[in-house]
Amino acid sequence: MIRSVDQYEFNRRGFLRVSFAAASGLLVSLYLDPHSAYVVQAQEGTAPAAPASYPPDAFVNIRPDGKIVIQVNRLEFGQGVQTALPMLLADEMDADWTNVIATLAPAADVYKDPLFGIQMVGGSGSIAHSFLQYRELGAKTRAMLIATAADRWGTTADQCRTEASVVHGPDGRSATYAELATDAARKPVPSNVRLKDPKEFRLVGKRVKRLDSRSKCDGSLKFGLDLDLPGMKVAVVAHPPVFGGRVKSFVDDEARRIEGVRDVFEIPLARGTGVAIVADKFWPAKQARSRLKIQWDVIGVEAADSAELWTRYRELSHTPGNVPVNQGDVKALDRIAASDRIVAEYAFPFLAHSPMEPLNTTVRFDGDRAEVWAGSQFQTVDQMAVAEVLGLKPQQVTFHTEMAGGGFGRRAVADSHIQREAATIAKRLRGTPVKLVWTREDDVQGGYYRPMHLHRVEVGVGSDGLPVAWRHVIVGQSITADTPFAGFTTKNGVDSTATEGVADTHYNIPNLHLTVHHPKVNVPVLWWRSVGHTHTAFVMETLIDELATRARVDPIAYRRKVLKPEAKELLSTLDLLEKASAGWRNALPKGHAVGISCHECFGTGVACAVDVSIENKRPRIHRATLAVNCGLAVNPLTVESQFQAGVTFGLSQLMAKGAITLKNGVVEQRNFDGYVPPYIVDAPVAVDVHIVPSGEAPSGCGEPPVPVISPAVVNALARLTGKRYRTLPLVSI
Amino acid sequence: MATYQLTVNGKRREVTVDPSTPLLWVLREDLKMTGTKFGCGISACGACTVHVGGVATRSCIVPISHIGDRPIVTIEGISQDAVGRAVQDAWVEKDVVQCGYCQSGQIMSAVALLKDTPKPTDKNIEESMGGNLCRCGTYPRIREAIKTASAQITKGGA
Asked: How would you classify residue A123: left for phi > 0, otherwise alpha for psi between -120 and 50, otherwise beta?
């Protein structure tokens, strides 16, 4: 998809008018041309309401040239929904796939997640929640096209069939979708349509290549950071060295002397205050920031310190807390001899998401309207935040969804701090578009990390080698505390995003007791791809492995014994993993070991086997085999890609420099030299992905690759060294 | 401010900028060629990789005043080169990209590798691609695509 900014703007803005009109009851046209857009605008006047049903014309645009433009109600940031959602719609519509163009929808009520009620990407829900929605949209559009053709030919719909954007009638007559589109738009939208039986799918379930590949290989695809508007300025912000710090005073003479610097001023931030620099271009803005002399006021601001936090968390882990799980007899553990108990303490540091595209947002404020361009996982939330800063209503803020270079949760922030910063600056620049750029240093040091966690677990083992009693304590900040999401996640003082993976474990543990502490710490925290499972799966899968070793049972066989019989997804993945990896597992070179893990999250079961040796005192992962049960794989090629690559994101937490640490309130890492994600040598050399055949509805694939890999790797290391690895990152082995 | 004559993808270009401005920002903001990406600004991620005088170079740390008369090739121009085209095609064929943000830099590094070493070993690949970060983790497919492109160019006698 190659597009110029001009076309892009026109299409988005024109389209938005049409969909708003449709939402208020004026179904105008299935295709959009400049004239109809203006007509619609003239008829507008009623405020858009939340739709009771989805008008297909807000999602499908059949152009006179036969191109079918499908609006994607999600951010595309690598996960492949920009291909998979159009596949669902196009399949039911019998659209010619070679003529499908997918675009990211702007913020609007019709594009809200059908389950979550806001427009967002999260919880691995894009396909799972929009699976039926996009199929129905396609089927309804097809029904309207068929009804139009049937009318023209004086026949009935059941006499017509469709294939590759053509309706075929009796007697060899046919009409293309493009020929029918204008009249079809005047047909009522059917309330009920028959969806295809899975065996009728032409696209779904096939390995379909991404629509955005070529434009991401020739430099033509525009990400949010690539946006260039006439007269646009670039802003960077000097943030306080300690979260919540405030500007006491600043001297900007030297900064202002840099050619191209237009303005320097103090702004309020989500936490504390900062100094914004506005310049014609990025480089002068960045140079000017380094020449600012700022006195910060950090009096009364908690200076978080990693070493102190560990001490505090450890103390907390020995005190009573909230108890979300108390299953069986809490005292059962005390009756087990000390020699049959494992006591384990785990430490997980703060982690930054660090998507490759630095965070950015562009805003233009025109007094009674504003326009925003952002690679956002949270369009509804961010649109409201911008409106609030600018004193507008959300519908006065046109919000364009920009392609994003990764995100992993970092672009879904309840306080919309990036968009608020950008809007605050744009307010002062009234009429001039301004692009706020967070440098990599801003990103690494800017908070919103996966929270630090300490786990303390005591396991009592029975004479059969199986876990009898399990006392588990989790200490870590609540991600959703003080956000509107707490109402969904937090019960009796326990944030389920910290306990998922333990509280709902599929292992059969007769006596399971879980205690949780959520200390308040002055470090902003956030969901990091797979959220609580990033640490809970590590704890569960390394302990289960240790129990298998202790019982001298094969780690796959042991897991099968401990899993509840109803954990069918996970059991099916273990079966497939065992078969798929048998060849290489039984022919390991000397100095190599196998590591196993399995975990279910976001409805998807995953089992993992890795072939690991030690090279240059680091784990070398020669191979990973993954078995996945994600229900129906809408695009098996994308599922394979997500798992092949997502495991490497999971390996971030094993990197020697894979931690964010604080000293006296200041983050000690600055950039990719101090906080180092996996490079090619740190990733598995090869990853083979095996999908369990399934007719069940699809479940998520964005997050489930992440939790399994780190425990599998350290389980292999444990076999090589005899040591257990419970403190991350993996500084030494 | 100073004026520089550059050769970018075979075309003569003139820019007037501060001499300290890194090549990356001249490409992105003065020449409006945004295919080359900003990732870290300290040559740690490789997203900004371009060819300067035929050498894979991190454009985020090279001041424009150091370029001299060496020709610059960016992702926008690499398809004019047989190896460049083969690498791009292999990337599409193997469905390598996810978010895609790092891939301009990955492709520029891969092209430089294959020009030097048309039949690279895994070790060659790890050395040449070792400084290009991909947060999505597309590394296994990058390896495959390099081997696909290698087969293509060695078959074609390039």
From this structure: left
